[in-house]
Amino acid sequence: MSAVAEPSKTPLKPLAPARSIIRHVDSGLSLPGENRLQLAVEVRWPDRTQFPQPSIALVCLPGGGMNRRFFDLIPADGGTDFSFAEQMRARGFIVILVDHLGVGDSSRPRDVFSLTPEVLTQTNQHAVEYIVSALRDGSLTSELPALTNLRTIGVGHSMGALLTLVQQHEFHPHAAVAVLGFSTGGLPQYVSEEALGLMAADAVGIRKELERLARAQFGDAPSVRRSSPQSGDLFAAAKADPRGIAALKPALAPMLPVPAFLSMLPGNIAAECAAIDVPVFIGVGELDMTGPAQLIPAAFSTSRDVTLEVLPQAGHSHFIFPARAQLFDRLAEWAAARMH
């Protein structure tokens, strides 16, 4: 039995310095006119005096306009109370943080519209497969033994949740998935009438039109945030901790327009979600942009184990709201219970 089987309710307080390593992993993909593309993957592990043989790794994919630092928000005072990575590490989990191609420390192709959901899914799978294999055979770092029984849980936020689910559908890498701030409802109020009509007529065939539609939606130089007077406080930032909002700045990254646009379409990956057959944890804020939270679990009709956690008075970027403490504890308890 692993030491993580019964995670403690660790308070939100400064923790011991992280043990971590960053690897730049070949993407396994060639794009026309591009040099070798690499993904930046960071691995953190718990204090081995407390957790000598960790058995669960959380593979974290950030959402649109964010890099891997979204899962490691550190305010100016250096506290770790906003950091998902540090709080999960303190509960006995290995945490794997991935920069998608095009963001953070990963390679940035010249044409960001070439980074389709299919491309990102393949490259994330290739990189994570390499890292997990190295953890299992003990070759990643001399500071960890061979973790032969290591299993992974996919954790994605917003667009990263969409990519986590597509990856699970295509490659089945994880024993369970945790999706945060995502639903198949999309954001139809921000999508063109043409796109809505195409989606209604052919939800599968529209994938061939995604690049064109994304260019029409975002323009040729998509920014981290594009707002309008009608968008309002889309992220419910008025309820967030100012320290957390400031800590988000290093996590900002270029928009990946094609998968971001897919996540906005109603019914975006409904077929993939319906085929997921592992346990699913759904975390949404009470003030999130996902639509009615109670409707989300129905999308995962094949899974026999779906957990919904609604975070009170929390918006879309869950880690900067007071309810993050609830999320850290509930997700850790859920993960440990499902793996044992």
Q: What would your notes on this structure say?
A:
With 340 residues, the protein is an alpha/beta fold. Helix content is 28%, strand content 15%. The protein has an eight-stranded mixed beta sheet with strand order 1-2-4-3-5-6-7-8, sandwiched between helices. It contains nine helices and eight strands. It has a single domain (19-339), classed as Rossmann fold (3-Layer(aba) Sandwich). The longest helix is centred in the middle third of the chain and has 21 residues, at 117-137. Residues 1-11 and 224-232 have low confidence and may be disordered. It is globular and about 60 Å long.
Topology:
Blueprint: E1 19-26, E2 38-45, E3 56-61, H1 84-90, E4 94-98, H2 117-137, E5 151-157, H3 159-171, E6 176-180, H4 193-201, H5 210-218, H6 242-247, H7 257-264, H8 270-275, E7 280-285, E8 306-311, H9 324-339
Parallel strand pairs: 3-4, 3-5, 5-6, 6-7, 7-8
Antiparallel strand pairs: 1-2, 2-4
Helix pairs in contact: 2-3, 5-7
Q: How many angstroms does the end-to-end distance come to?
A: 8 Å
- Helical content band: 25-40%
Q: Given this structure, which CATH class is correct?
A: Alpha Beta
CATH architecture: 3-Layer(aba) Sandwich
Please tell me how large the radius of gyration is. Answer: 19 Å
Structural class category: alpha/beta
Low-confidence stretches: 1-11, 224-232
Major pleated sheet: 8 strands, mixed
Number of helices: 9
Arrangement of strands in the largest sheet: 1-2-4-3-5-6-7-8
Number of domains: 1
